[in-house]
Protein 1
Amino acid sequence: MFWLLLAAAQAAPPPQKSKSFVTYDNYPAEALRNHWEGVVVADLTISPEGRVAACKVIQSSGHQVLDDATCDLMIRRAIFTPARDSNGKPVEDHVRTPPITWSLPN
């Protein structure tokens, strides 16, 4: 059994690097022109359907255009597994994003 597990572990492909939530294509033109970068953290309200219903920046990048773009992207792209109440019914929830980094390509 040990040899089967060892063989399976050796045959497994290496983990893939996750893609960034923010890409160069998402960069606001004003931020590109001014070479603005920063980190944003936001509180999100998640609907019972798993979509972002509201976004509030709690740690600003220092640039309103990047903060606004972060919330816009979260509202348009993010999908969550809805929280459930004690009866299993989907309910509204609140989550905090990890730091979202806006950085220009080198």
Protein 2
Amino acid sequence: MSNTKGVVAAGHELTVSAAAEILDDGGNAFDAALAGAFMTFVAEAVFASPGGGGFLMARRAGSDKATLFDCFVETPLKRRRDGAAFFPVHADFGPAKQEFHIGLGSSATPGAIPGLFAIHEALCRLPMKRLVEPAARAARIGFPLSAFQAYLFTVIAPILTASASVRRIFAPGGKLMRAGEIFRNEELGECLEWVAEDGPRLFVDGDVGRAIAEESLAQGGHLTERDLEQYGVAIRDPLYWRHQGAAVALNPPPAASGALIAFGLAYLEAISASGGAIDALALRQALAAMNEARKRHGKDLAERLAGGALANDLREARRHGGAYRGTTHVSVIDAEGNAAAISLSNGEGNGFVVGRFGFMLNNMLGEEDLASGGLDAWRPGTRLSSMMAPTLILEPDGTITALGTGGSNRIRAAILQVASNLLDHGMSLERAVAAPRLHVERDGAVSFEPGFPEGAETAFRALGDKAHAWPERNLFFGGVHAARRHGDGGAEGAGDPRRGGVFRVV
């Protein structure tokens, strides 16, 4: 990167532009990642919000170790006794509909704002006010709604029209905004400027925190000021796995993703060691085995193929309820070699805007598999498990790759396949991201994109009604946004076209 300041990849042009602006202004990769994260709240509001949570996988230049900042959501400390406001809606994905649960009772304690401030204090150079500027400016001035975001509006229309407060932002005049129309959220812009000035206490005992607690009490939520006060960002050591000589830094427990991806890599390596080809059929086997490992809590297959420590990580992840839905991701590597992979999620939002602050709280307590006893049986005061997988790959020649994706339970499959494309097949970053993907459900059903070799497609189709051939690449299979810095200083990026991805070398 001798003549560049860095490389950025994300799910929206404005997100990439915000991060690039900060790199151009002398910020490092972590400054740029935070600017991108704030912009996702504005430009990718279906996926991310100050009312949600996320993870940053960070590696300082020259270090052989990464750090995981866990600012994911947490279950409330107490369950309200008089019943929570909690109701189902159905999102329309075209071929299928999915039930979500919204209302104030669906919201877990948010961690996004405490997390971004903890990252800023630990890793950043520029003032927080500077990092918020691009997002606040876009929210205030407005921007044309992209075709992809407009499509997402239609998918979760019941959530974006659930209350007058949310309709005011996403469906002014009673109709959902369409592609090309100017989207503004001035209240959110003001909120972001305010928090940059006052700090994270604004979301605890300041005006925003008080609004969260008061509305929760009045409208059937579980959250109180004590939940906001007691929340803490967790700093964790990544789960490391080696594959083809590369060190892969993965999201550790209580997240479920890292152990499962490591298990998949170990499975592929076992196939290769026994003389098998790492091809589409091997990937199908690995993905099916990952499901089995998940189902068995890491026993049996995990111990045989990935060792006892990995099995323990799988078991630990299963002790926590799971929240695996709407997610976006930003990857940044700067000229010095600092690397940031940040994944953020708000679920789909709870359908109600907090005060006049322009954002919804998450609906993470609406996960079907949150607790075996049902949707209202979550364990209080517990950091939720997540399938989000911000990942760094450090190769022996000094090449480093930052990547991550949205895609619910398809996240682990997408990261495994892109990592394998890079490390097993030596693909360029763009080719590794664009290559066709498959996904294996728990019941053995296989969904696959076009472009696999004829022999593999024939094998998939032989599954009969458990074979789901997609006519084109689709957001169902995730959106891997990745940045890469080579050992010689060269840079490349990839924004996944499945989710409106964009990249830029600055």
Protein 3
Amino acid sequence: MEIQLINHCLIEELRQKANNNERLRQHFDLRTSSDDGSQRMLNVLQPGTKIPIHRHLQSAETVVCIEGCFDEVFYEELPNVVSGGLIHDGEETLDETCFKEVARFRICPKDRVYGIQIPPFSWHSIEVIEPSVIFEAKDGRYHG
């Protein structure tokens, strides 16, 4: 049996990787085997990281903020927008100009707001306010 502690050492290692990653983020897969059909991960996010607008068709998503502060932003597709191509491929945005923001929630443990449950089919993204460590969970295999 392998036990994985989620402690300061792990977070600092992920933070260093995020700082050195051009995407300004680093995930850590918490699944115990490749046969695990769920997604459970830590994600270290730095301000300036770009999380594309996306949605999950098969599952809700649970996001819990361990430390830091970010806004979870929700969108809707704009009707009758001509983008010259596809707007999305079902789950990921291909043209963000075809969406408008409809809600924003500040997730910040210092303010006693610890996480959010995102319903299936909800277009969403994250705007990082300060360096953040989040736990994410949803159904379905991770293909990262």
Protein 4
Amino acid sequence: MEFGMNRRGFLGLAAAGSLLAQDTRGSSGAAVSSLAAGSGARPALLGGTPVRTRSWPVWPVFDSSEERHLQDVLASGKWFRGYGDKVAKFEEAYARLTGAKHCLATANGTSALLTSMAVLDVGPGDEVILPPYTFVATVNVILMHHALPVFVDSHLESFQIDPAKIDKAVTDRTVLLMPVHIAGLPADIDRILEVARARKLPVLEDACQAHLAEWRGRKVGTYGRAGCFSFQASKHLNAGEGGAIISDDEEFIENCFTFHNNSRSRKTAPGNAGFAYSPRAGANLRLTEFQGNLLLAQMVRLDEQSRTREENAGYLASMLSRIPGITPARLHEGATRAAYHLFMFRYEKVAFSGLARNGFLKALTAEGIPCSSGYRPLNKEPFIQMALQSRGYRRIYPKDLLEGWLERNACPQNDLLCEQAVWFSQNMLLGSRSDMDQIAEAIGKIQKHAGELART
């Protein structure tokens, strides 16, 4: 697995940003060492004063511009995309932003994936390859098409799908590779596409958390047959709910439009004459005019906010990498920009006097640094087994294939990742440099007193 320096992504923070991808001994060592050593103060859980008492940046960010955009749609009386033009304008703007030729807005990121898979003719009897370290929607859409999910283990350092293990997971039933740019960190697109070309398989990029992320200077989501994005409330581009499909394939996008529009093509969509239906089944997965115009307002801040996250992530990683037992997620060599929907790192309790991760999370939260443990092993979720043992799946797939599914989908590296991962949310990265200092200070304080914390 190759990693390298992210030169474009950190805007002058080359010394700090490169620490995500290589050794972290740099010129800022004195300041970092001071923070990592922790102050003499006791942790908040042991009666000390929290490192931070101020609130973190709030999300979403909005002002009177969003109010005007919503009011404009309200006053127009054209709330549905078939009658207004706001969704179409957003689609044009988002296509330009990503460098894609075409964009289709959808009700949410899940429906973008669902629609794309329908047009790619994923269905009963098929297998779809995906990573186990991802949001549940990635596997749900596979199950909704009655296909068989096949998990490929994670790579610890990157938190991404391990491309070296993809080829061995391909069978004669495999119809799709679905990598995920989790947390906005680009997956290794080069090696994924290498397998896809050799096996003659389409690639659908789940870029739902990766707005503006880039691989070799080109936006993620533009490498596969299509890329899917989410505009749910926590995302960098936020309409409460919403999604998009981008592609350079016009026929593909037109088929996606028909599917997401209840089997009606653009020629027979509401606002046009006729009620002719496509031979392809469909669903109502459209975005509203309110959301389309809200996204146009939100897009104005997207690049600046993303740059702030990148800078803070690079600086924070440069400090945390110097604390024993703390390993920030690393970028692949080809990643020229990361979106940082999350800041993720691995926590190894052996460097913290055996303090369990839950104890670490509790202590860090008490210091005023909100954090979480992230995803559980998705391949082990009971609902998947329930689906595979359903009447429909038992009619579609051979008994031995279903009975051997758990063993085939074992992901030991991902199990370890799920035991060690710690997350900070994207709004924290919109703070100041001193906010990042406080995170490192709090972790250093906890490490200094980890033995005592482990005994409480």
